[in-house]
Write a structure and sequence with these properties.
Elements (H helix, E strand, L loop, with lengths): L9 E5 L2 E4 H18 L4 H20 L2 H5 L1 H16 L19 H23 L1 H4 L10 H19 L5 H18 L4 H27 L1
Antiparallel strand pairs: 1-2
Helix pairs in contact: 1-2, 1-9, 2-4, 4-7, 5-7, 7-8, 8-9
């Protein structure tokens, strides 16, 4: 298993940069997960579990420790969303007996934004000194504050997605735009292009969820 997901297991190259098997599998599962989410399909959670595991391996290989360490939390949020979508309260259910799409209040938007910024600052500091605390496990983190910002935004977007809030797609726009920059700086060749694909899917998801929200409100 270790050799199968080794960073040296290269499938092809793009622009002189190597693309490994784990990166390719991450892309495939990620795109499938987001596409299913845009259509509000429960199956997106099953694919998401596999995606979390693959990303944990990939980010460890690339030294993106914030993104790596957050995958167990992301996995837990994915599980929570899976349960939340399929077990709504009676007043929260749509015609398919699944959680219906709703909007955040202004106060809730301010709260989640402030929490995301606070997380970025605190987690960025932690990442900066992570290699000093555990030198035998972690090397120096690459761009810790940018990594922390993306991590905080992803967790926020995932939590809002788990609650089926239409606002989640606005956060995903920010995540995908920032990820394109982060992945390029980290030396990833395939994922920046895929993040552009995610960005397109996010616009599709917003449009589809907005239509469903209007039909069920």
């Amino acid at each position: 298993m270790e050799s199968l997901f080794s960073i040296d297991n290269i499938l092809f190259t793009i622009g002189g940069q190597s693309v490994s098997l784990v990166e390719t599998l991450s892309v495939a599962t990620g795109l499938a997960c987001v596409y299913l989410a845009t259509r509000a399909k429960i199956a997106n959670f099953w694919v998401g579990y596999i995606y979390n595991i693959l990303l944990f391996i990939l980010f460890y290989q690339k030294g993106l420790y914030s993104s790596m360490l957050v995958q167990p939390i992301s996995f837990a949020i994915n599980f929570f969303g899976h349960w939340r979508w399929t077990h709504p309260a009676k007043e929260e259910a749509n015609s398919k007996r699944q959680l219906k799409i709703t909007l955040l209040s202004v106060k809730e938007r301010v709260f989640h934004t402030a929490l995301m910024v606070l997380f970025m600052i605190v987690w960025g500091v932690v990442l900066t000194y992570l290699d000093d605390i555990f030198p035998s496990v972690f090397s120096e983190a690459k761009r810790p504050y940018l990594d922390a910002f993306v991590t905080g935004a992803i967790l926020t977007a995932q939590y809002l997605s788990a609650q089926k809030k239409l606002d989640c797609w606005g956060v995903w726009f920010i995540v995908n735009i920032t990820n394109i920059t982060l992945y390029i700086l980290a030396g990833l060749a395939f994922l920046p292009m895929v993040s552009a694909g995610y960005l397109i899917l996010a616009f599709m998801g917003f449009a589809m969820w907005k239509k469903m929200w209007r039909e069920n409100k």
